[in-house]
Amino acid sequence: MAEDTPTPPGGRIDLAAFLAALELSPVGDGTFEAASLGPPGGVVFGGQLMAQAVAAATRVVPDKTVRSLHTVFARAGTTDHPVQIDVEQMHAGRAFASVTVSIRQGDRLCARSLVLLDSPDPDLIRHAPPMPGTGPPADPPAGAWWEVRTVGGVDVSDPEAVGPAELQVWTRFPDAPEGDAVNRALLAYATDGFLIGTAMRPHAGVGQSMAHVSIATTVLTHTLSFHQPVRASEWLLLDQRSTYAGSGRAYGRGEVFEAGGALVASFVQDSMIRHMTG
After folding, report:
1. Which among 123, 194, 203, 266 has the fewest CB atoms less than 10 Å away?
2. Cβ atoms 165, 243 nearer than 8 A
């Protein structure tokens, strides 16, 4: 299980810290160590672990790009300690490669990702859904390393703000460097933080501000597929919806569009939303 909400934009994490967390230090054959992000005593955000899985897979298979990753979050990690990342190569061929990425803190297995990498082929067929009609993002505050704007000013933290189980979010990292792996890692980070709040929207008296206070929430699994190269420094629209909630669980999915309308990625997430116990 992993923390389901990232540090707010402009918070303690900055782009330099994020990029440093992707600088994996080799400690053995296929084994790396990397920093944890967030204030002391916190829980590691799941988006960090997915971003590091992207970086680790690309490090081991540098001649291909990450096509998809499926991550299961087993246990929470703490921001007080670095993470150990173990990469096992399952297969490597001309067009495809696959690896498993296990992320631990000591003897505690935090997450495991199955990562597919590939070398793109020329089109035989191509189609994609159109981008939903939204206005451009509002002007963000100056100086934020990660800029986020919800369409329509929706506040998923407010327990009384009821609406459909849908959420559209503009996001960008304005100073993101060039490089395919780091841009995919940044998008992985961004996709992890909004679907639980999306699932809460139709339910009066329930909001993301209650998470870890009176409601227990966590991301259980997250699958992200990249369709096209990503430029995380440019505005990207996360078009999200939760199609099911019940039995203490929720399911949601989303598409990621460039501002010009091209679909660049898709993702799905299973999460836990239940009464706080103990």
Report:
1. 123
2. yes
pLDDT digits (tens, 9 = 90+) for 171-227: 999 999 999 999 999 999 999 999 999 999 999 988 888 888 889 999 999 999 999
pTM of the entire predicted model: 0.94
Cα gap 160→168, rounded to integer Å? 19
Residue type (1 letter), 81: H
Question: How many Cβ atoms are within 10 Å of 18's Cβ, its own excluded?
Answer: 22
Residue 106: DSSP 8-state: T
How is the beta sheet containing 147-150 ordered, strand by strand? 25-28, 31-34, 83-92, 96-105, 108-118, 65-73, 215-226, 263-275, 249-258, 236-246, 166-172, 147-150
Task: Domains for the chain: give ranges and CATH numbers.
Answer: 15-119+145-275 (2.40.160.210)
Give the DSSP per-residue string, 174-230: TTPPS-HHHHHHHHHHHHTSSHHHHHHTTSTT--GGGBTTTEEEEEEEEEEEE-S--
